[in-house]
Amino acid sequence: MSVHAVRGTRDILPDEVAAWQGMEKAARELFARYGYREIRTPVFEETELFARGIGAETDIVSKEMYTFADRDGGSLTLRPEATAGIVRAVIEHNLMNTDPALKVYALGPMFRRERPQKGRYRQFHQVDVEAFGFTRPAIDAETIELALAYLDACGVTRHQLVLNSVGDGNCRPAYVELLRQALRERASTMCGDCQRRAETNPLRVLDCKVPQDQPLIEALPKITDHLCAACREHFAEVCRQLRLLGIDYRLEPRLVRGLDYYVRTTFEVTSDALGAQSSVLGGGRYDGLVKDLGGPELPGIGFAVGMERLSLLLPPCPPPPRCQVFLLPLVEGAQDRALVLQRDLRAAGVSALLDPEGRSFKSRMKQADKLGARFVAILGEDELRRGAWSVRDMARSAQEDVPAQRVLQYLKERTNG
Ligand code: HAM
Fold it and tell me: Model's pTM, two decimal places?
């Protein structure tokens, strides 16, 4: 019986890794310029953190979490997203008191038991960004600008920014009540989830993807028509600053996002190239979350990029060469010298590979070519007699005799820089 990867998980194979390292490198370089530092939190947390943070009525918490009993009877969950764990760490380590500009990012795997399809996995990876302690609209605009700058840094250009405000504790309760009333008349014809949520958490009805429910949902009252003055002002200023920064957006009053912690600004970036799972990143403001999880009054805002989805949008990236120098000893006595030169090249910072299998000259040259070698250093009977290596420059198809005592320096100079 052969063993397969678990449904909804995938291997990132060596040929793909360069693209992943590119996404990671772009994140680290760009986020540092915006004052962010990396944080690494555990992949599992107490279940309660997510139930309280993300919301018990969300799809993520009610249907998709990988939850298991710990041996001591506690309940643990593989993190379905990064924000709740980061907030927990911020509170636990009092980071808001020691860091004057609390901006952190994280990279890593997340787990949701969704139905797998293109761009949707049960283990997937996020690049996650969070900023704490900023109340003004400027951070909303900066965060969105950063999200787009990140896509840009990865070479992704064709996408659309979708924007909304979901109000706050001041205006949302009245809107939710309005929604509840509107749903009382209609929910009986909607899907089971909507019927339940119409009472328990009406905002979640707006996330419903069931096709026959869509016309009803479209006709529901829109949150942006029911914002309080402060939320309206905040949102107008976010929009104004985005326009100032030359950022195009589309307003989408249904964009409440699948997590309960959002207030005011929410946003997503979508791409038609992704198919049904079109959202490459999503985020928003979550001013009450830190307090809800037992911390102080501390506003927060952030976003997360799905790396599998981002990788589908990346321009093609040929795998980097496997070695700079391929060593080709042709006769018995050459093997030892090749071993020593291989070690010396590596110590000098040059990547070197030696084919130890002694296949035919032609097939080894082919192998060197496949590995992307810049130089092939050949040591045969003739070369041994002359005390030299034949060094073949693969790019220029030219060959040169290099004295044995100079070959290391020769290859070093031509490969490093
Ligand atoms: P989210 O919208 O649930 O937000 O996820 C963010 C991104 O993760 C999505 O846009 C998508 O690219 C990717 N993603 C989500 N689920 C899957 C999946 N099953 N397979 C592949 N990719 C997936 C959050 O997670 C929030 N924590 C974002 C945030 C940070 N808000 C504030 N700070």
Answer: 0.94
